[in-house]
Amino acid sequence: xxxxxxSGIRIPDSKLAREAAQFIRDTESxxxxxxxxxxxxxxxLAGTRRGLSFDPELFYTAAxxxxxxxxSGFRESHLRFEVDGANAARDFLKSHGISxxxxxxxxxxxxxxxxPGISAHLHPIVALTAEGVMMxxxxxxxxxxxxxxxxxxxxxxxxxxxxAEDLLQALYDxxxxxxxxxxxxxxxxxxxxxDPHFHRGNFCSxxxxxxxxxxx
Length: 216
Hints:
By secondary structure, the chain is mainly alpha-helical.
């Protein structure tokens, strides 16, 4: 669906933004593409409301690529999916001549988007990516958006009743071959929900059974 402005937010239409969107359309499902677009819109609305300064193209790229690590191209990877997505965005931006400084902001935005308590203290692109993700996933900051804003975003990119289950399945499909990368994050909850054989890591047990506590 092509929309010029959504509640005052214009989706970037530069060559970089169009190619980022096409890259994601070619590698992700339409479901994940629309989720990523809403992440951009929620984040951009929040940033505009707070008067934050950010490059919309770079932020759009971060939003587009934040779930890229869940796709079939990374089914053999044992990195965290966030790192795979960050690396994919880094390679994409390098191929477009973007500066290392700008690339670092996008990389951090994607790599940290599931890590609570850190993103909010970094560059607006990093903070707004995490904020947009959490708004779309669990309604974080829901009441800070107006009814008109929420309605406009959902009209352009519907947030379906099955969204939660569909996204949980997409997360599980991208993580089931590397469950060890989910320990210590909310993604471990996804694994436990979908896989009855999943065992959570226990940091206390890891410390008590480390090489430091074993007899030499």
